[in-house]
């Protein structure tokens, strides 16, 4: 699989040390607030697991499934909610955990959707930010890394459902998606 990559952008070690920093920051900010960590399926799974396991505060886990892509490397702009949160979020401190913020369509959609549930607070924690890809304004509250506007895979991120299992994040060779 490594040969399908142009280059490794973030090594496993870089990701793990940054995720530990984010975890410590969340533990400080949410101590005593019993937050709900709401992972966005499927891309956020490895990040969600590493971010929240062993966080030394009382908290809950829930998942929501949103998809905007279809196949390919460009967002369709149409966000579909495939599975809603299953917990009651009214009055709860909710932290949405997502793999990447690109056009902003997905998180803009989720923000509007989740605010209707009247949480006590709503924040967004993302591993990767591609600010150059933005089509709608959106700023996340916690950001792991800001990256260039290239299509990346690994650590949960896919191309046509492949590469999610890589422990690092790499730039996919353009010949893979142009053929
Ligand atoms: P947005 O709606 O364009 O902001 O993008 C959010 C979703 O698009 C993410 O949850 C990813 O599933 C997908 N995505 C955006 N950029 C990439 C990328 O570089 N690689 C893989 N998936 C991406
Ligand atoms: Mg995703």
Provide the descriptors you would attach to this structure in a database record.
179 residues; alpha/beta; 6-stranded mixed beta sheet; binds inosinic acid; binds magnesium ion
Ordered list of secondary-structure elements with their pairings:
Blueprint: E1 5-10, H1 12-30, E2 36-41, H2 45-52, E3 60-67, E4 80-83, E5 93-101, H3 105-115, E6 121-129, E7 142-146, E8 152-153, E9 169-172, H4 174-178
Parallel strand pairs: 2-3, 2-5, 5-6, 6-7
Antiparallel strand pairs: 1-9, 3-4, 8-9
Helix pairs in contact: 1-2
Bound molecules: inosinic acid and magnesium ion (MG).
Give your account of this protein's structure.
The structure is a single chain. With about 180 residues, the protein is of the alpha/beta class. It is about 25% helix and about 30% strand. The chain has a six-stranded mixed β-sheet, with helices on both faces. A three-stranded antiparallel β-sheet has the order 1-9-8. Helix 1 crosses helix 2. The two termini are about 15 Å apart. The mean pLDDT is about 95. The site of magnesium ion has 3 residues, from loops.
